[in-house]
Specification:
InterPro entries: Pectate_lyase_PlyH/PlyE-like, Pectin_lyas_fold, Pectin_lyase_fold/virulence. This is Pectate lyase. Keywords: Calcium, Lyase, Secreted, Signal. One of its GO terms (molecular function) is pectate lyase activity. The chain has an 18-stranded mixed beta sheet that branches. It is globular. The protein has one domain: Single-stranded right-handed beta-helix, Pectin lyase-like (Pectate Lyase C-like, 3 Solenoid). By secondary structure, it is mainly β. Helix content is 0%, strand content 45%.
């Protein structure tokens, strides 16, 4: 099993990160003529793309951006996938400013870091064709901050899909995950040991090792409902607890299942998909 990722300074450290060269995309309203409406259920197949764009640098999103189901990645640039090599937000496809939202986008396979949220963000109907390092990294720092992931899905994540390095809560709903290590991981060895919370509702998990991983000694909690799997992860492994540790160490797993108070769900209620 792959050990949890050691987080970089740009993913939660108080160290000032190196300047990031970015391509800026700034809009103030969401387009209303999208080819794909916001999902109300779970889709289990990768949507067809409406076009393709290879970005030379990460694109910064302020306000709302509707990608109209165009595929974006970093092919031919320094942000292309380097397997599980540690990289930073400069290798993302999109960087979301606090309060920004992105919808109806396909993230292609030639990228390292997917989406980085510098603060609370909303991600709706976004698909990852082939996750490289992580699909999405959450870096909000407020205890009451909430980032929301609605619909969409991710395929072939060797490690994590959602990496929560910051504070606050992440909400995941109507999401499909196939062939992955963890759907969600609260960082267990970042420079700042935040209390983190996750709410997961109505997801379909295929071929995963774990659903969510949280650090119970830091006060992390997970609330899960309407969870469906194909048997992998197991009903118990839908939620696992870890011992959060200082940066530079590896967080040990405590255990998995509904017997741990930090994991609020019922193993017997886990369904099939």
């Amino acid at each position: 099993m792959r050990l949890p990722k050691r987080c970089l300074p740009s993913s939660g450290s108080t160290t000032t990160p190196a300047p990031t060269t970015t391509t800026r995309i700034t809009t103030t309203t969401t387009r209303t003529t999208s080819t794909a409406p916001a999902p109300t259920g779970i889709t289990t197949t990768l949507p067809a793309s409406a076009g393709y764009v290879a970005l030379p640098t990460a694109s910064v999103i302020s306000g709302s951006f509707d990608g109209r189901m165009v595929k974006y990645d970093r092919q031919g640039s320094s942000g292309a996938c380097q397997e599980q090599s540690e990289t930073g937000e400069e290798d993302a496809v999109f960087i979301l400013q606090p309060g920004a939202s992105i919808s109806n986008v396909i993230i292609g396979k030639d990228q390292a870091e997917g989406i980085h949220c510098r603060g609370p963000c909303t991600v709706t109907n976004v698909w990852w064709e082939d996750v490289c390092e992580d699909a999405i990294t959450i870096k909000q720092t407020g205890a009451n901050d909430v980032s929301t992931i609605i619909g969409g899905g991710a395929f072939n994540a060797e490690d994590k899909i959602v990496q929560h390095n910051g504070a606050g809560r992440v909400s995941i709903s109507n999401f499909f995950a196939s062939s992955f290590g963890k759907l969600y991981r609260a960082c267990g060895n970042c420079a700042t040991s935040y209390e983190r919370h996750v709410t997961v509702n109505n997801v379909c998990l295929h071929g995963g090792s774990e659903g969510v991983g949280i650090n119970s000694n830091w006060g992390d909690t997970a609330i899960l409902s309407n969870i469906k799997t194909n048997g992998k992860p197991s009903d118990a492994s839908v939620c696992c607890t870890y011992q959060g540790v200082p940066k530079g160490s590896e967080p040990p797993k405590i255990g998995c299942g509904d017997g741990y108070s930090a994991c609020s769900y019922s193993e017997s209620a886990v369904g099939s998909c």
